[in-house]
Structure formats: C-alpha cells, structure tokens
Amino acid sequence: MLTKEDLAKYPFAPEAQAFVKERGLTIEELARPEHRTILDRALDRIKEALTVGVISAKLDELEVELLSYPAAVALISLSGDRLLQSRYAEGEAKRAFALLKSEGADKLAFLAQHCFKWLVVRSHADLGFRSYEFTLWWRDYLSVSMGFKSPHWKLVNRALSAGMVYLQRHELARLMAEALRERLIHRLSTPPSVELAGELKAALAHILELSKRKAPRQALDEVEGMGEAAYPPCIKALVEDAMAGRQLPHMARFTLASFMLSIGKSIEEVVNLFRSLPDFDEKRTTYHVRHIAGEIGSRTKYTPPSCDTLRTFNLCTSPDHLCQRIRHPLTYYKLRSLERRGEGGRARAEADR
Amino acid sequence: MGERELRLIVKLVKEYYASPTCFIEEPSELPRREVAFMFFERGEVLRHLVFSSLEELRKFLASQAPRHVYYSSAYYLSPGEKDMDSKGWLGADLVFDIDSDHLPTPCKEEHDSWRCLDCGAAGRGLAPQACPSCGGRRLESESFYLCPLCLEAAKSELLKLIEDFLIPDFGFSSSELHIAFSGRRGYHLHVDSEAVRELDQYARRELVDYLKAVSLRPEAHGFHASIKGAIAPPALSHPGWRGRVVRGIYSYLSSATVSDLEALLPPSKRRLAAEIYESKDKLLAVLESSKPKWSTLTKYGKRFWEGLVSKAIELQRCEIDERVTTDVRRLIRLPGSLHGDTGLIAKPLSLRELDSFDPLKDSVAFREGEVKVRVGKCPRLTLMGECFGPFDGDAVTLPTAAAFYLLRSGLAELA
User: Fold this and answer.
1) Are B13 and B338 in contact (CB under 8 A)?
2) Using an 8 Å Cβ cutoff, are B134 and B153 in contact?
3) Under a CB-based contact definition with an 8 Å cutoff, are residues A337 and A221 in contact?
C-alpha cells in the first residue's frame, strides 16, 4: 500500500526500514564519493533541525531522501549530545506532521496502524461543528497525549466512547508526530558501536559546534533561589496551612517536604515546618523527611510532584499567570528567582520554551 | 482492648479462616504479588511475603489469624525483595476505591463528630475547616461507621463508576471488573485486564482526572458562550462528558428548589428563580430534544449558565480515592479476607450480585453465638438486619458479630 514516495516521506515506516536494510549501506560507506548526495542530505536534515527547527521534505530524489534519514539518525546518536538529539527529533517530528496532516484519511489511518501499531478506526462522527474522522483506542491515545501540555489534550476534555477517543485529522497527525519524536529520542540515546574517521568525524565535529553555538543557555538548576517570595501559590498555601497547624493530607506533606528539600532547606528546617501540625511527632516526621531526602530507605531523593499531579490531588490553589506557563512547582521557583534578580526577560523566554 | 478480649477476637478470626465458608478468591498470578499482614497483638506491618499457592496462604491465615490481609495490585519479578526498587515491577491491576467518607451524606450529622483541640468546642457532622468558636484549625474528628445510608451511597457511586464510565466510555467488559466490599466504609474495584497492567502512574492519573472531572473545560465539550446559536449543540445521548454534562443539567434542574436556583443567580436577578422553577417541565422537555435550544437556559445570564454547568459536573463526577488508583504499588485488602476491625468480610461480588448486596447482612462473618459485653456510650448499631443500642454503659448479651465490632472499636469490654 505504500509507494516509494511514501517511504521517502515516512522513513520511519517498517517498509522503509526494510528497504534500508536491504540496501545494506553502512555508516563507514557514507564517506564514499558515490554516496555523497546521501551524506549531504543527512547533514542538511541536521542543519535544518538546528537552524529552522523543521526539516523539509525534498521529494525530487526519493532514494536520497529515504537513505539520508538513517544516516542522520546514526550521526546524531554518535554525537552523544542530548540537546542536539532532542532538537533533531523535534525537527523530524515537525516534518512528519506537515506531511501527515495533508494525507487522505484512509492513508493516515493506515500509517497510524502500520507505523505505530495503534488501534485506529475510521469514523464519521459529527459532534458540534467538528467532524471526527478517526477514533483511537484510549490506551494508544494516552501513550502520547500525556506529553502535551495544553488542556485540550487531556483525556477529560476529549470525546470518549466505548474505549475510543474521537480525533480530527490534524489531531491524529499531531499524535503520530509526537510518537515519532519519542521513538527517535529513545533510539538516539543508544548509539551504534562504530568509530568514525576522516570526513565523517569532521562532519560530526561541525554539527556539534553548530549545536553548541545555538544553545548557550544556563541550566535552570544552576539558579540560586530567592526564598519565600519566589514560592509558587500552592507551596505558599501549604506553608500557611502548616504554620496554622491545619491537618494536612499525606500528599500535601510530601509535596511540602520534597519542595523544601529540593530548594536546599535542611532536614531540621523542614521538620520545623511541620511542628504546628496536630499530630506532630518529631521522630516520625524526621524519619519521613530523611526518607524523602534520600538519606534512608530506598536512597531515592524525591522531587516534588508536577503541577498535573497537584491538580489531581486538589493541591493546586489559586494559580497565577506564571503558573499558566510552567508544569512543575520547582520551575516556578527558579523562574521567579531569576525574575527577582532583574533577569525577567530571560525568565519569560525560559518559560515559553 | 484487654487480654481476654484479644484472646476471644483471635480465636474467632482463626475459626473463620479455618471454616469452609471462608471463600478467598485467588488473585491472578498470586506468586508474582507481594502479600502483607497486620496483627492484633502488635502494631507493625509484616510485608514482602510471597505465597506460591492459595492453599499455602489459607494455611497461614488459619494459623496466624491476622487482623488485616493485603496483597499488591502490582506484579513483580521478585515480590519478596524488601527494597521496592529491587522487586522488578512488571505491571499492576487498575484499582478503584470508593469510600463513603468522601461522600456528602446527610447522616454524617448523626454519626460523625469533631472536637477542637485548642478550645474544646465540639460539633456533629463532617469537621469544618476551622473551629467556629476560636478559629483554630486543630480539629479531631471521630466517626462511628457501619452506617447503612453511607454504604448505600458508596454502592451508588460504584455503580456510577461502572455503568456511567468504565463500561460506556472506556469500553471495559463487565467480566474484567472484579468488585469487593472493602470490609468497612466502601468498595474496591479491580480491573484485571492486560490492557491496563502496564499503565504507569501518570496514565492512571489521566484516568482519575477523567472520572473526577479534574481540569475539565466545559467549552471542550460544546458548553461555550455561543452554545445558544450552535448548529449541533450537546444533547443527552452524546458520548462521554458531552452528554454527561447535559444529563447532569437535566437531573440538577429536575430536583432543584427555588432557593437552589436563586443561589445560581446574581442578586439583581434573584426574582427570576421562581420563573425558572415554574417553567421547569418546559425546560426539561427542551433538553430531551436531539438538538436542544440552549437559549432557553442561557437567557438567564452568564452567571446562571456557568453555575448550572458546574453544578452538573459536580453531580456527575465520580468520587474515587485518587491515591489508590494512581499508586502502582498499592497494597489492597485481599477479597474474601476479614476486616479485623469490623468483623466483616471483604466479600468478592459480581456486578449482578451487587444490586441486592447488603454489606451489613451479607458480609457478616460471625453469624453464630452470643457474647456478654458491657457497652460504653455509643449510638445505634445496625447488623444482620437488626438494630442494637444506643448504649450507655449497659451490660448486654449481643450476637457475636455485634460484640466483635464493639469490642474492636473500643466501645465495649467483656462483661
């Protein structure tokens, strides 16, 4: 059912991979003059991902377009550069999205079943003014939708019936692109075991240089905190409750303790926060806080729950405008801290990322 | 509980587990699960045990007479490892817990009470957020369980979960759903299906949010400001939350009083409440259409409309305990085992049996004999279709089941 053009468009399809395997092109052979066009296109793909953010679809030489994909994937995974890998995956996902959303409905459904093993059914349901051409099994839906931030993608905001989620064409295309991105991220993190030499080594060095120039960002976790004024509303509320000696549910205590530990408070400081609680017991509280800090027990240092989790547990209280842009209370704290230091511009830029 | 009482309780529990009437449903893949116990004589939990067969587990129960028996919803490679990270998580059943504690029943006034630890003020019903007399927030609440009304409310909530959500929306079949009475305040529902085993905590949270309507945006289901002009507006029969909100509006309107309606209107429009109440039948008829004319309701203003939609969502959402469902390593009471604080069996039930199931009759473990006890101050207790009490320091002879409950609640001692 898939043509050669389809394979060039969707090099992640199983047939495309079979084709590549049959050609038996190794990464070392890429440096040979007869494969020059493939290597060049592979490098182009990477540059496009780094500069424009989207990889184009060049469908004049189908075989080159198809073979340049595994070549680029091999180079990127050999780079070992996480940021580069995620940008490349993003670029391929956007390329796929643009192509997929203009496919016919039957072809799109076929690709979803075929490339991602999803249970997709063509449908003709109209709800309101929207018409839904597809339904997707809720499990397959959740396997990718949770990566999206917009509330539009939350299951509770979808039409769901008999286990199937109603989808419009562009939505199914978007889910497939996201599934591709995740698959690529996973694949790129396990490089093939080859040593690059000569021209290929130089090409890789060039890519790494380009990637470095594009990403001189300070990591969020290097920011020095600014104390109470930078706490997100949910944490402020929990601190107030704790000070007022209100009974707090388990999840609230965990959130408060893990947040305070994450921003560098000591075990004693955190234990003191709980002192006014009606059932305060110094020994037990210390034990639990040390556990969360990773000093005892499983030795896992826990981070506070994400905004989504806090919402589920009804602990998200009076979110402000910054909350709209973040999905984790620690991010809020770090951005506010940056802002307070007069670096507001960058804080906003970070949040929009 | 004193020595004598303890001896009696342990003897009764041993007898139960040794009797042929004790039916324990074998959990699927028992050897892959962690089993845990609590005992009457000591406080700590005995965890990380593995049983290779139901027979072995039954022998343990009959010889040790545990107070509580739990098993993990999770399947592990090595369930007996003490370190959770070394167990090798393979998957977990999807579990729901419905607890009447979280359901607003009118009888809470009767059997729940609270006391302020700061000023000593006390009251009945669910504890308020702050003490009404001193404003303190250190409140202690107390509750006398085994309330038939609360258990009935939990049962309807469970039926709502199954019949309004899991079957129609998620497409589960009733054969995948295993129900069990929790032994005290509510019900557990185990979904034992390959389709859910590998769901991680985040995916389970999406399910919880769906059921509890967390972050639900009415406009995503067609309930936006321009609904009055919509060509294909939401209707009763629509799938998912779209139809469910319409059904919620329908049922809210049909039972609303004039003062309920007033509360949805701004002060300047309060007088409209009577008009809406009068035209109730007409409004409901409009909603029954396949293309309801929503302008009949939106014309009462934005505040009324939005209030009505949020009331509808409140009515329709399902009160499950999110902590249980999102925890992929949860220990849950073993269906068929005894709840050591009530003497009731955590009885496994089929969907068909649920309808006529009366937990205070059908899950009573100790059906024979009588015990002479002295009962302190305590409200009326309903068990096996009979009422006992209220008591106030009386010495009485009670059926074993009632005596067990009162002894375990610390409300009675052997006379």
Assistant:
1) yes
2) no
3) no
Distance separating alpha carbons of residues A301 and A261, to the nearest angstrom: 9
Q: Which residues of B are catalytic?
A: 97, 99, 321
Nearest residue on chain B to A136, alpha-carbon basis: B170
Calpha distance A68→A41 (Å, rounded):
6
- Main-chain phi, psi angles of B84, to 5 degrees: -55, -35
A156–B241 C-beta distance less than 8 A:
yes
Residue B43 CA from chain centroid, whole number: 25
pLDDT at A59: 94
Check if the beta carbon of residue B338 is closer than 8 Å to that of residue B345: yes
Q: What percent of chain A has pLDDT over 70?
A: 92
* Residue A348 contacts B where some CB pair is shorter than 8 Å: no
- The sign of the torsion formed by the CA atoms of A338, A339, A342, A348 equals positive
Q: Which two tokens stand for residue A184?
A: 């690529």
Contact: B168, A311; criterion CB under 8 Å: no
Query: What is the end-to-end Cα distance of chain A in Å, rounded?
Result: 39
- Produce one character per residue of B353-364: b if its CB has 16 or more CB atoms within 10 Å, e if not: eeeebebbeebb
CA distance A273 to A231: 15
d(CA A273, CA B174): 47
Rounded Cα gap, residues B164 and B156, in angstroms? 11
Separation in Å, CA of A311 to nearest CA in chain B: 7
Cα–Cα distance for residue pair B336/A49, rounded to 1 Å: 59
Whether B389 and B382 have beta carbons less than 8 Å apart is answered as: no
* Inter-chain CB proximity B234 and A146 less than 8 Å: no
Under 8 Å between Cβ of A263 and A304: no
Q: Which residues contact A50 (CB under 8 A, 6 or more apart)?
A: A84, A87, A88, A91, A207, A210, A211, A214
Phi, psi values for residue B78, rounded to 5°:
-130, 85
Query: How high is the mean pLDDT in each 10-residue block of chain B (415 residues)?
Result: 92 94 91 97 91 95 96 96 92 95 78 81 79 77 78 95 97 94 95 91 94 94 82 90 97 95 93 93 94 91 94 96 94 96 95 94 94 90 89 92 93 91
**Tell me, what DSSP letter sits at residue B299?**
T
Rounded to a whole number of angstroms, the CA Rg of chain A reads: 25
- Mean pLDDT check: name the lowest of A43-57, A285-299, B269-283: A285-299
Closest CA to B42 of B13, B64, B18, B14: B64
Q: CB-hemisphere CA count at 13 Å for A276?
A: 14
- Helix then strand then coil, in percent of chain A rounded to 5, is 65, 5, 30
DSSP bridge pairs for B35:
B49, B71
d(CA A303, CA A263): 10
pLDDT at A349: 47
Query: Mutate which of A130, A155, A309 to disrupt the B interface (most B C-beta within 10 Å)?
Result: A155
pLDDT of residue B183: 94
The answer to whether B325 and B204 have CB atoms below 8 angstroms apart is yes
Question: Is the separation of the CB atoms in B355 and B391 below 8 Å?
Answer: no
A143 CB neighbours in chain B (<8 A) are: 203
Strand partners of residue B91: B75
- Write down the residue that tokens 């790494």 correspond to: A208
What is the distance between the alpha carbons of residues B369 and B15, in angstroms, rounded to a whole number? Answer: 13
Residues 6+ apart with CB under 8 A from A195: none
